[in-house]
């Protein structure tokens, strides 16, 4: 069996026609974890819709050196036992993330028009699988569903729910 693992952020450079370049200003590009709270127009509008998470945003936009957004979110979760408002703030963060990741995924799909590195890789994997007779297990830690949307129709695989 072949195991293929996609790390969080794999969609950042998923469109070959739009390779990431420093300062490219492409606001439709899926964000890396440390960009999830950037001051993009879409993100700012979403933050206005989820005001309970706003007190956390300056910290999440500028984590201390050597700290990740995930580490800060875990720290906020740990604080919630003694400061219950954190539970509400973190719930708002979850809704914010769901909203912006859905929206940015849709915008990115409109930008690249379905031409992705995912489709090319999945095609290569399917060709390898058909020749080798081996099974393939794909694991993703992506925040978005761009990989799932790239599954070739010929595989007749539908992902409708994640238990």
Taken as a percent bin, the fraction of beta residues is 5-15%
Oligomer: single chain
Name the helicity range.
Answer: 40-55%
Q: How are the strands of the largest sheet arranged?
A: 1-2
Broad shape? globular
Uncertain runs:
none
Number of extended strands: 2
> What is the element string, with H for helices and E for strands?
EHHHHHEH
Radius of gyration: 18 Å
Report the total helices: 6
Coarse structural class: mainly alpha
Termini separation (Å)? 23 Å
Biggest sheet, in brief?
Answer: 2 strands, parallel
Integer tally of domains = 1
Kindly state the mean pLDDT as a whole number? 89
What does this structure look like?
With 163 residues, the chain is mainly alpha-helical. The chain has one domain. The chain is 45% helix and 6% strand. It is built from six helices and two strands; from the N terminus they run βαααααβα. The protein has a two-stranded parallel sheet.
Short recap of the structure:
The protein is mainly alpha-helical and 163 residues long. It has helices spanning 41-49, 57-61, 69-79, 85-112, 117-132, 146-149; strands at residues 2-6, 136-140.
Provide the descriptors you would attach to this structure in a database record:
single chain; about 160 residues; mainly alpha; two-stranded parallel sheet; 6 helices; about 45% helix
Q: What are the SSEs and their pairings?
A:
Layout lengths: L1 E5 L34 H9 L7 H5 L7 H11 L5 H28 L4 H16 L3 E5 L5 H4 L14
Parallel strand pairs: 1-2
Helix pairs in contact: 1-4
């Amino acid at each position: 069996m072949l195991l293929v693992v996609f790390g969080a952020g794999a969609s950042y450079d998923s469109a070959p026609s739009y390779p990431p370049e420093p300062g490219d200003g492409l606001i439709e590009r899926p964000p890396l974890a440390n960009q999830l709270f950037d001051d993009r127009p879409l993100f700012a509008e979403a933050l206005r819709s989820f005001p309970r998470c706003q007190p956390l945003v300056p910290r999440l936009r500028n984590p201390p050196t050597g700290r990740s957004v995930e580490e800060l979110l875990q720290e906020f979760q740990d604080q919630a036992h003694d400061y219950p408002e954190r539970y509400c703030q973190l719930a708002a963060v979850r809704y914010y993330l769901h909203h912006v990741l859905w929206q940015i995924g849709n915008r990115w799909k409109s930008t690249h028009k379905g031409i992705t590195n995912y489709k090319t890789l999945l095609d290569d994997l399917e060709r390898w699988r058909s020749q080798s007779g081996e099974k393939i297990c794909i694991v993703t830690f992506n925040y978005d569903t761009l990989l799932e949307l790239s599954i070739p129709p010929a595989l007749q695989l539908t992902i409708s729910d994640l238990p």
